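Researcher: Next sequence.
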Amino acid sequence: MNTNRFEKRINITSGVLNKIAGIDRIKGQWKGGLKISPQILGRLKTSVIITSSGASTRIEGSKLSDEDVTRLLRGLKTNSPKNRDEQEVAGYADLLGRILDHYPDLKLTENNILHFHSILLGFSDKDTSHRGKYKTSDNKVIIQNDAGQTSVLFEATKPYLVKPEMDVLMRWTEENLVSGTMHPLLVTASFVFEFLAIHPFLDGNGRLSRSLTNLLLLRAGYSYVR
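Model: Next structure:
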């Protein structure tokens, strides 16, 4: 798999560079201008997990509001998720919490990504057979219009090509993040695009891509509150 195609997809214009510069100015202001107590930091982290878990699953059809997510996560120790929406929120929140706690030590490796997928689907008994494993059958990305009609947006990478393509993508991403030859926002965006084009799992690709986006941004210094 030729990594040159990754760079060719990235169209660096003056507008893109201006937006990156603006984001980095805000990042610097947050880092330099805030001193947050551990107690407030803990509450902000909880808020991030709630709002991100709700938004990430609503993108894919979940009906749970942020208030519903808050109640669900507070009661997880005593009550198991009752339906698919709750299972997806619980899994996403679990994974995001672990990423926020341990991101400095989490590299983009096959073992980590498979483990993340297992955590993401950890509350769903229906996904036991394939969680933590690359897909073994073809999958397609389907879109639905307002009238309820569906169509195929694209057909993802064939199962037998998933591992080699993922290996190359992860290596390219890590090398560019470490070397600093390309801005980390461009590397992250490119990784997510290619990851979703591969669609390496039978289910959970969108939620996992958003979790990995958080991981890569945190590793690059884009803190969730500071």
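Model: Residues 127 and 214 are 24 Å apart (CA to CA). Residues 33-219 form a domain with the Fic-like fold fold (CATH 1.10.3290.10).
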